[in-house]
Design brief:
Layout (H helix, E strand, L loop, with lengths): L1 E7 L4 E7 L4 E9 L7 E6 L5 E4 L5 H13 L12 E8 L10 E2 L2 H9 L8 H14 L5 E5 L9 H4 L6 H6 L8 H15 L7 E7 L3 E7 L2 E5 L21 H10 L3 H10 L2 H6 L5 H9 L3 H25 L4 E5 H6 L1 H8 L21 E2 L8 E4 L4 H13 L1
Parallel strand pairs: 1-6, 6-8, 9-12, 12-14
Antiparallel strand pairs: 1-2, 2-3, 3-4, 4-5, 7-8, 9-10, 10-11, 13-14
Helix pairs in contact: 1-3, 10-11, 11-13
The chain binds adenosine monophosphate.
Length: about 400
């Protein structure tokens, strides 16, 4: 049984076709610059040559048509008939308070995705277009929506409410939602699986450290707190996002420079974080290289990133009154042993001790804490596509 996983961004579409019996990826690919000049499809069938198609894509409908064509291609395709796709799993950014589980898409689900356009203005419209495009080209094949916010719906009110007038929650559902839910869900389940901890009596901290970064506290298998908020801007320092900041900074800059709130939010989302602090790049490898070459701002950006992660770990240990395991995942968490060591250097008071050779662990599942560490520390590669496919399969099977 093959599941197609679709992840639509505002001008992009990522996809994977996964054989769920073997869990093998049959093909994956990316449509870039949708609706912009220079659109391109890169299709990578496993074990075959890559296919690159430079062709205008005016919208996500055209992109989906091109993806299906590539999957069916006589040379670089991986299926012969569209009926070999059993279901499509869509990553949908925002499900607000309405969805704590994946759902089979119907008109009511589409309405909720649409009602959440304000909450996810870049992603939710693209997600809905992707769903409609797949329905048009694959009539009768079930479409499943897997929400990035769903895993965090178990947070208690004390964790998700902002300390602002309650009427904003009542009128507009303003609250913390959290994101990267598919990753936090997948990695926390894997952590429970490989640690042998009792799922009903366990305290985990999952650090998803990539270009987008978030951290969550997972008690007894359920998320009890997470660092991202109403939008993905809150929390940790990220590639280009500031994370936590005093909102009064915005008023101050607005008055000094005459910027609008939209311009300021754009600055916090796209020009801040590692990029803004270092002035070098949003890519952690570039920032590290600059630090090694003596760039002071790059050094401070790296230190601030580690410090923020360590502070959140401390906060979540307090929230759960303890921690059994800490797991690092995503681009930085999976690959950067030095960063893991620098973050864990703050955690001596918890009895956290890493092995020396953890420094070289890259992109593979591993226990990286020393045998005498009081808390187990893991690296677990995230696999959001497989998780979406598994959740889709569970619903349609
Ligand atoms: P993600 O958003 O999860 O794809 O993570 C992207 C980030 O991971 C980029 O900033 C990369 O610099 C970082 N990254 C990937 N590989 C490495 C590596 N080997 N060492 C340090 N950072 C890495």
């Amino acid at each position: 049984m093959n599941i197609l996983v679709i992840n639509c961004g505002s001008s992009s579409l990522k996809y994977q076709l996964i054989d769920m019996d073997s869990k093998n990826v049959l093909a994956k690919g990316l449509c870039e610059r949708i609706g912009i000049e220079g659109s391109k499809l890169t299709h990578e069938p496993t074990g075959k040559d890559k296919l690159v198609v430079n062709q205008p894509m005016k919208d996500h409908q055209v992109a989906v048509d091109m993806v299906i064509k590539a999957l069916l291609d006589a040379k670089q395709g991986v299926i012969k008939n569209i009926s070999e796709i059993s279901a499509v799993g869509h990553r949908v950014l925002h499900g607000s308070k309405y969805y704590s589980d994946p759902v089979i898409v119907n008109e009511d689900v589409k309405k909720v995705i649409k009602d959440c356009f304000d909450l996810g203005p870049l992603h939710n419209p693209a997600n809905l277009t992707g769903i409609n495009a797949c329905e048009a080209v694959m009539p009768g094949i079930p479409q499943v929506a897997v929400f990035d916010t769903a895993f965090h719906q178990t947070m208690p009110e004390k964790a998700f409410l902002y300390a602002i007038p309650y009427e904003y929650y009542e009128k507009y559902n303003i609250r913390k939602y959290g994101f990267h839910g598919t990753s936090h869900s997948y990695v926390s389940k894997k952590t429970l699986e490989i640690s042998g901890l009792d799922p009903k009596d366990s305290k985990l901290i999952i650090a998803h450290l990539g270009n987008g970064a978030s951290i969550s506290a997972v008690q007894n298998g359920k998320c009890v707190d997470t660092s991202m908020g109403l939008t993905p801007l809150e929390g940790l320092i990220m590639g280009t996002r500031s994370g936590d900041i005093d909102p009064a900074v915005l008023q101050y800059i607005a008055h000094k420079e005459g910027q609008t709130i939209d311009e300021l939010l754009n600055m916090l989302n796209k020009k801040s974080g590692m990029l803004g602090m270092s002035g070098v790049s949003s890519d952690f490898r570039d920032v590290k290289k600059a630090e090694d070459e003596g760039n002071h701002r790059a050094k401070v950006a790296n230190e601030a990133f580690d410090y923020r992660v360590a502070k959140y770990i401390g906060a979540y240990v307090a929230a759960m009154n303890g921690v059994d395991a800490i797991t690092f995942t995503a681009g930085v968490g999976e690959n950067d042993g030095l960063k893991r060591a620098q973050i864990c250097a703050y955690l001596g008071y918890l009895g956290v001790k890493l092995t020396e050779d953890q420094i070289s662990i890259r992109g593979k599942e591993a226990l990286i804490s020393a045998p005498n560490s009081k808390v187990k520390v893991y690296v677990i590669p995230t696999n959001e596509e497989l998780s979406i496919a598994q959740q889709t399969l569970a619903l349609v099977h």
